[in-house]
Every structure is written in C-alpha cells, then in structure tokens.
Amino acid sequence: xxxxxxxxxxxxxxxxxxxxxxxxxxxxxxxxxxxxxxxxxxxxxxxxxxxxxxxxxxxxxxxxxxxxxxxxxxxxxxxxxxxxxxxxxxxxxxxxxxxxxxxxxxxxxxxxxxxxxxxxxxxxxxxxxxxxxxxxxxxxxxxxxxxxxxxxxxxxxxxxxxxxxxxxxxxxxxxxxxxxxxxxxxxxxxxxxxxxxxxxxxxxxxxxxxxxxxxxxxxxxxxxxxxxxxxxxxxxxxxxxxxxxxxxxxxxxxxxxxxxxxxxxxxxxxxxxxxxxxxxxxxxxxxxxxxxxxxxxxxxxxxxxxxxxxxxxxxxxxxxxxxxxxxxxxxxxxxxxxxxxxxxxxxxxxxxxxxxxxxxxxxxxxxxxxxxxxxxxxxxxxxxxxxxxxxxxxxxxxxxxxxxxxxxxxxxxxxxxxxxxxxxxxxxxxxxxxxxxxxxxxxxxxxxxxxxxxxxxxxxxxxxxxxxxxxxxxxxxxxxxxxxxxxxxxxxx
Length: 493
Ligand code: SF4
Known about the structure:
Blueprint: H1 8-16, H2 19-41, H3 46-62, H4 64-77, E1 81-85, H5 88-101, E2 106-109, H6 113-118, H7 120-126, E3 130-133, H8 136-144, H9 160-170, H10 183-200, E4 203-206, E5 210-212, E6 217-222, H11 226-232, E7 236-242, E8 246-247, H12 250-265, E9 272-276, E10 290-296, H13 300-304, H14 319-323, H15 327-330, H16 341-351, H17 354-357, H18 359-362, H19 369-373, H20 380-393, H21 399-413, H22 415-432, E11 442-443, E12 459-460, H23 467-482, H24 489-492
Helix pairs in contact: 2-12, 3-12, 9-10, 16-20
Bound molecules: iron/sulfur cluster.
C-alpha cells in the first residue's frame, strides 16, 4: 500500500483553506451522526447489540484459523474456490491470473477497501485489462485518479459542479457531448455509461462485508445495487477480501447487519443485502460460471498477535470518521492513505510502519467520540496511543515534543517545582493577554515551542487561578457549608 501520510501537515493545511471542502465536511459531520443517533435511539437493544457484536468479532478473531478453515471447506463444497494471499502483491497476482484464465479484457468492480489497499486496479491495468469501478463514488474518483475521501462515501468531498466537469471530460468518448449539471441527470449519465460496461464485462470483482463460516457464503451490503450486478452478470465472480471478515454463523451475521447500516448511514437497513453461495448451479437461471475467493492477509496476521488486535473487529462503517473533529476539519485525502480518520490512524501504521504513518495517530484530540460510536466498541484512542508510544520509543517524534514531554515528566515527579511552574506560567499568560473585551480575554501569540498553538487560533487567557487553587477553594467552601469536604476529597490525597 503506497501512502503519503508523511505529508499530513502540508495536506491538512491545504484542506483547511478549501472552502468547498469545509462545506461538505460540515454536512457530513452533522448529518451522519444525527441520523445514526436517531436510528440507534429507535432500537432499544442497540447498546446490547454492540456488546454482542464485539463478542462475536472477538470470538471469531480468537479462533480465526478454525473459522477460515470451515469457511474454505464450505466454499469448496458449494462449488467455489479459495485462494490464500499472504501479501498484497500475491493477491494481485492471483486475481490477474484468474482474469487471464477467463481470457478477460473487461473487468468491473464494486467498492472494496481491500482492493484499494492492494491497488489492484493499477496492477490489472498494467496487465492490459480495462477495469471499471461501478459504485458511483468510486467511479468518480477513478476518473479523477484520486484516493477515497471516506471509506463509505469515496467522493463525498466533491460538488455537483466538480462531478459535472469530470463527466464532461471523460464521457465524450462515449458520445456524450452535452455538459450536465443537474444531480439526477449526472447519476443518469453515469448509469448509461456503466450499463454498457456491465454488459460487456468478462469478470466481476467484489469485496465482502462478511464471510460466514457456517455456510461458506459472502455477504454484500450496498445501497446502489451495483455489487449485485457485478457479482451476477459477468461469467466469473472474484471476491477479494481480508481474512478478518469471517463470522461463525448466520445468526452472528444478523447481529452485525443490524448495526452496520445504522452506524454507517443512519439507515435501518441498506437497500441491498445479498448472500452469495457459489457459482451457478444446474437449473439456475443466471449467475457466474465460477466463484473464486481471494483471502488476503497483507499484515493482518501480524495485527492478530499485536496490541492493536482489537482493530481487526472493524466492520468499516465509517462512524468514527463522521464523529472525529480532526477528520471533520481536514477530510480523508489529508491522511494520505485509503484508510482515514480514527480507524485509518490505527490501520495505516499497522499495515505499513509507524515511521511512515506516525503522523496519523498524532492527529487526534483523544476526545473519545470515535470509541463512543464504534458499533464493535474498538478502543480507538487506546490503540492510537499505542502507536504514539511506539513512535516515541523509536525516537521518531519531533525533538520539541520529546523535550516537552521530558520536562513535563520531571515536573510531574516534583510537585513543588510543578506548582512554581504553574504559578509563573499563569503570571506570564496574564501579562500576554490584553485587557478584557466583550469576547473575553485571549492570547494572540504564545512564545517558543508553544507558538504553534496560536498560529491559527487564539488561546483563552487563564481566569481564577490554577486548578489546584480552585480545587482547594471548593473543598474549603464545601467544608464550611456542610461540615464535610466535597465528594472529591479522595482525589486530593
Ligand atoms: S473503527 Fe468502528 S466506527 Fe470506525 S469504521 Fe471501524 S467499526 Fe466503524
């Protein structure tokens, strides 16, 4: 997986200047969380389902070899084939070989984050194949040669005008010379072009939202129905998916399917939820002649034995992205990885290295909102903290940060010096703050290593003394009023 996460600072600074992006992110950050909250509130057992989902995913991961083995046996019994790929390169080679076996020239694809991770399209195109993404968002970013902006909505950052420009340029070779700007007409135009691709495709490649060990089926969840056309129209269906997607039974799948659309798009269910069992059987009216599943490891086994194992529970709903204040300010492209937001900040260093992707786990306020909304209760801040610790251990963090943490550690161990430091800091900050205005008192510029804080915003001036001073005052007031210290007495000892 090629990443440019080392450019996070530059890319996020650019993104912050982009007004049209800010508008798209505002809608995304308001609309999806509100819709999620509404549908979750309508389901009394929502929190209990989250517990069950966490347990199901943990159980599957704890017995991953057994469930994958059971899944493979069932797939073979159903007439399909399973291929194991240790690395991304191996997975790409297997898919290209399967396409060659089919004498394929035209390939259609539905949205799949694993194939984005593998950069499968580039590989197949280098082998002489024409690959067309059929999810509308993926199709748009494929034409624009961009990486997905969001794991659920790859082109959510683009305006209708930008899509119109892209289609106008790309669709002239399909005989469409009129520039279309209306959203419904843009969708219609994409549908007309894509229908031709569906009809002429030799191979259809999909991902899988889940694999069911009990039955050997794959589950696909979409809103556009393009994955179903991809899986059924061409003569061959290839599924490319990560090994972590397996769940034991159909009942377990039911639990996850109740959480996924609610968490992702605030829907009770997605428009299309399909289970695929294998190739066309005698008597079937349609379906592909072959059904191949490529199970991709590409670093997942290493994660299984690591402190970030819990990340493998992820069901790619995108709720953590929608709730993250950092993602909500800079959007997906700044992350320089197909996986962005809080989930990407854990996945990306796991699949590459902390030296390449260390910026991402640092791009978090640790407000905890991502963990609060995650349907499988992944402790994202804890996992990001793991990568920060690794970065620190490997001496990769900036000298100023290391120096600052060293000073802080020393002060935390020397309470008297700490109190003196705080007192001097308060005096200094009060000197730096101008006289109060109607908007309060603000410091416009901090000196030295703290200057970065005030580069793009003001800092509120301190008021009412240090935390410890205020705490003691509150304790004293409580004692005078009730004869007892306040409930937080224990914390002061
Ligand atoms: S980490 Fe949780 S919230 Fe984020 S995409 Fe994965 S399952 Fe969804």
